[in-house]
Amino acid sequence: MAHTSDRYYIPHGSPWPIVGTVALLLLMFGVASALNGAAIGKFSMLAGAVVLLFMLFGWFGVVIKESVDGIYNQQVDRSFRMGMAWFIASEVMFFAAFFGALFYARQIVLPWLGGESNNFFTNFLLWPGFEGTWPSNGPAEIGGEYKPMGPWGLPAINTAILLSSGVTITIAHHALKAGNRGMLILFLGLTWALGLLFVGLQATEYAHAYHDIADGGLGLTLGSGIYGSTFFMLTGFHGLHVTLGATMLIVIWFRCLKGHFTPENHFGFEGVAWYWHFVDVVWLGLFIFVYWL
Amino acid sequence: MSTTAEAHHDHHDAPSGIKRWIFATNHKDIGTMYLVFSGLMFFTGGAMAMIIRAELFQPGLQFVDPGFFNQMTTMHALVMVFGAVMPALVGLANWMVPLMVGAPDMALPRMNNWSFWILPVAAILLVSTLFMGGGAPASGWTMYPPLVLQTGDAFPFLIFSVHLLGMSSIMGAINIVVTIMNMRAPGMGLLKMPLFVWTWLITAYLLILAMPVLAGAVTMLLTDEYFGTSFFNAAGGGDPVMFQHVFWFFGHPEVYIMILPAFGIVSQIIPTFARKPLFGYDSMVYATASIAFLSFIVWAHHMFTVGMPLAGQLFFMFSTMLIAVPTGVKVFNWTATMWKGSLTFETPMLFAVAFLFLFTIGGFSGLMLGITPADFQYHDTYFVVAHFHYTLVPGAVFGIMAGVYFWLPKWTGHMYNEKLGKLHFWLSAIFVNVTFFPQHFVGLAGMPRRIPDYATQFADFNMISSIGAFVFGASQLLFVYIIWSCVRGGEKASTQVWEGAEGLEWTVPSPAPHHTFEVAPEVR
Amino acid sequence: MRERFRRISKNAVLGTLCYLLAIPAAFADWEINLTEGVTPISRDTFALHMIIFWVCVVIAVVVFGVIIYSLFTFRRSRGAVPDTSMVHSTKMEIVWTIIPIGILVAMAIPAAESLIKIEDTRSPDLTIKVTGYQWKWHYEYLGDSADQFVKSNFGFFSNIDAASNRARQVDSGVDVYQIEHYLRDVDKRVVVPVNRKVRLLLTSNDVLHAWWVPDLGGKRDAIPGFINEMWFQAEETGVYRGQCAELCGRDHGFMPIVVEVQTEEDFAQWVAQNGGAVGGGPADVPGATGDVVAAAAAAAGGAGSSDAVDIELGFDELMSRGEAAYLTNCSACHQPNGQGLEVGGFPALAGSAIAAGELSVHVDQVLNGKAGTAMASFAYLSDTDIAAIITYERNAWGNDTGDIIQPADIQAAR
Ligand code: HEA
Ligand code: HEA
Ligand code: CUA
Ligand SMILES: [Cu+2]
Question: Which end of chain A, N or C, is more open, meaning fewer C-beta atoms within 10 Å of its C-beta?
Answer without folding.
Answer: N
